[in-house]
Design brief:
By secondary structure, the chain is α+β, with helices and mostly antiparallel strands. The chain is 39% helix and 23% strand.
Length: 264
């Protein structure tokens, strides 16, 4: 696509996530009651379906040739070509528990590179957008990562692995939190990942890391942080791809120190 077409797709994607967010906002409030994993999954699916009823036709009409990632928790590389990677209710469990940390995300991926992303926070009305090579924005205002140059003075964040994650990954997450508690000023741990990455792009948080994770968790934030001037890599400092086992997004001044902390 040309830059102009990308900008049109971005603008329309932002409108779509806002409209889907309005649907979820109407459903938000009381804490949902469930007594089994099956009941929880049904409640999560109802939220997803309500948002997807808005997102899927709108995004599919924008790029008719783009395929659709059906499983939002899936990871790994995608086949070449264009794909919509969407999380209709990022932080869905938070939504069901009456907590405010949830969003609607949509990212157009081309040959495994995110090119357009929009993330909407329905409870605040804020919309974060990024275009590859075109910068990152919050409601039209440019975003910039922090200028932190000292990990020991930095606020960092992480998110847990996926439910039912491999035990080795869970142990690595725990070890990494301990390492960062020793290396950084403050460590935040919560879900979803995307909201931490919004904070990194906006300069409110200095670094975010995660092991494993779904494409839909990381691709929107990867583009936003990169376009806001941050560094995105795997946990060892190598180029990150959806196949990587770890993810790190940081202000440039502390990226190397964060890699070193995570390697211990």
């Amino acid at each position: 696509m040309t830059e102009t077409k990308n900008q049109v797709v971005l603008a329309q994607t932002a409108l779509a996530v806002r409209d889907a967010g309005a649907v979820l906002r109407e459903r938000f409030g009381a804490v949902a009651s469930y007594q089994s994993r099956e009941e929880l999954m049904r409640l999560l699916a109802v939220n997803d379906d309500a948002a997807l009823a808005v997102l899927r036709p709108r995004l599919s009409s924008l790029r008719p040739g783009a395929r659709w990632v059906e499983e939002e928790l899936a990871g790994g590389a995608l086949p070449d070509g264009e794909w919509w990677v969407v999380d209709p209710a990022e932080g869905n469990v938070n939504h069901l528990h009456g907590l405010p940390e949830w969003a609607v995300t949509a990212t157009l991926v081309r040959d495994n590179e995110p090119v357009v992303t929009a993330v909407h926070l329905p409870l605040t009305g804020q919309t974060y957008t990024a275009l590859a090579g075109g910068g990152a924005y919050l409601d039209g205002s440019p975003l910039h990562v922090s200028g932190s140059a000292d990990l020991g003075l930095s606020l960092v964040a992480t998110s847990q692995a996926r439910p039912d994650e491999d035990e080795a990954v869970v142990r690595r997450v725990g070890d990494s939190i301990g390492a960062m508690l020793r290396a950084a000023l403050v460590v935040r741990t919560s879900v979803p990942a995307t909201l931490h990455l919004l904070d990194v792009a906006a300069g409110r948080v200095d670094a975010f890391w995660q092991f494993a994770g779904a494409r839909a968790d990381l691709l929107p934030g990867a583009l936003l942080v990169t376009e806001a001037g941050g560094r995105v890599s795997d946990a060892e400092g190598r180029p990150w791809t959806p196949e990587s086992a770890g993810f790190l997004a940081a202000a440039p001044g502390i990226h190397s120190a964060a890699v070193a902390a995570l390697s211990h």
